[in-house]
Design a protein that fits this description.
Blueprint (H helix, E strand, L loop, with lengths): L3 H17 L5 H7 L6 H13 L3 E2 L8 E2 L1 H9 L9 H12 L4 H16 L2 E5 L8 E10 L2 E8 L4 E7 L6 H15 L7 H5 L8 H18 L7 E4 L16 H8 L1 H10 L6 E4 L11 E8 L7 E8 L4 H21 L1
Antiparallel strand pairs: 1-2, 3-7, 3-10, 4-5, 5-6, 8-9, 9-10
Length: about 350
Amino acid sequence: MLSERRLQVLRAIVQDYVGTEEPVGSKALTERHGLGVSPATVRNDMAALEEEGYIAQPHTSAGRIPTDKGYRLFVDKLAEVKPMTAPERRAIQNFLDGAVDLDDVVARTVRLLAQLTRQVAVVQYPSLTRSTVRHVELLSLAPARVMLVLITDTGRVEQRMVDCPAPFGETSLADLRARLNSRVAGRRFTDVPQLVEDLPEGFDVEDRGTVSTVLSTLLETLVEENEERLVIGGTANLTRFAHDFPLTIRPVLEALEEQVVLLRLLGEMQNPGMTVRIGHENAHEGLNSTSIVSVGYGSGGEAVAKLGVVGPTRMDYPGTMGAVRAVARYVGQILAES
């Protein structure tokens, strides 16, 4: 374990390097930070930090920069995440409060996160598998054609057309709608198959085929594999950090284009709380020079999806983590009230 003083030196190196983009020397550290020790002591501490792999010397520069391991320790030992100011919090609330539906909430969240952090923002749509049913609507479009509308507790709306094996009257449709909602409204998606299993038996023989067809469509909607969707914004922000990527930002851009890569990475971050993946902790090679800061969001204290940012490892971690956490909290409140 590092001594408290060496941890202080590492913290100062990270802060200065993030702020100035320049490798940090012992003289600058002693002048800028009240470390209470001589430059010679700071030099010794820096030598020890370098030997243990927390900092490195780029090229022939006299200064040092943090390594992935150094950033990792810095993040793990953060005394506190930088809180948003009152005007920032009001701005977040006002911007998100204007959203009209789930798509608008997600679109606004991406724009807001990219602006606040000046990084690439990533927002995952609420997952159907972690949602509950708010309401199932059935609308007659033709004698043997029905539109099924599934509304979730997160405000997500899925629509499907159902071609029925026989004409289905308005009275039967209203009956099916009422019985279906009495069983599934407020219930988890995973519970629905058992809850509706015997529903067709309560209908007349000639209607059972149609009831079964409607239920099959509902169940298919609940378990669709392509439900996982991401929205990405602020990719242009990466160009501001071109010098932070060893050779080129192309691998990062390619990885961001492959949404399945980001979905997998977010999925691997099982903890719904704040997660920070730094540099080579990201399994995908194209993201080895980036850090991903993510957190779960949802209504009723349960995470239904994740949001976060992708940027260079040289990022303002306390500020970024504060912004990501604040935005997630507001999005959760909006979903709970929607």
